[in-house]
Amino acid sequence: MRTVNDEAIRAHGAVRFRSEYHYAIFEYWRSAKVLRYLDRCGVTRLGRVLDDGCGGGGMTVSFAEESDSVVGIDLSDRFAAAGTVLAREKSVANIWFARTDGQALPFRDDAFDTVFSHAVIEHVADPLAYLHEMRRVLNPGGLVFLQTAPYLAPSGAHLPRLTFPVPYYLFLGRRVSFRLARWLAAHLPGALDAPPDGSSFLTSARKGEVKRDDLLYRVTVRNLRQNIAAAGFRVIHEDFSFSGLAKRVLPGRVVGRVRGVPLVRDILVTDMNYLLRAD
User: Domain range holding 178?
Assistant: First the structure.
């Protein structure tokens, strides 16, 4: 999937929590943005690919359409009801899924040419072990696409936004904010700015499930850079996206300088894209 269709991404994003299959379709369409980023970075060949935390497997299917072969791994078998079905529908045969831990990969050294990690590392208990394993299974010169967001940013917090735009997680702390979001989803769902099938908090509350906080690594620009270096990667590209509020309120030259101010950048950077090389 190489066509970036923002309308389709929004439409599928609004219903992505309806089922694992719906989430996989959303991932499939969203993968075009990842591939476009790699195109801009001059990456023309993916070769043997590992999707390191594939979730429902929608992106995995898209990557398989553009590469020699793809293995998608995840701690749960969410892909069984989604990615495998989508792969059959798309007639994609060069794809395999496995339930395993990215912190202890069951693959030989130098097994892959490219590794994808999209919105995964923040859910990993030991991010350095996760990155070390990536490095081990990559061949020399292999590439990693890594995407995440600082945990103090709206996207990195993985919490629903309120209809009245207040960044409550900045004032209440992680534990209280998560409990508040869960309570609002169950008792005052109208207070959350999210479609019914576009928030895991709302769908969990509707099903009577107790949602667990799976944000295990509190990402900051600084600690992520440190872990990347410690794992033996060289940064080829580091690209930040800033919040709409920062772009509207701050002059362009000031926004550009934000990346050098630790706490401020962790609040205003909404998306971090890295291209890493295993030298």
Answer: 159-207
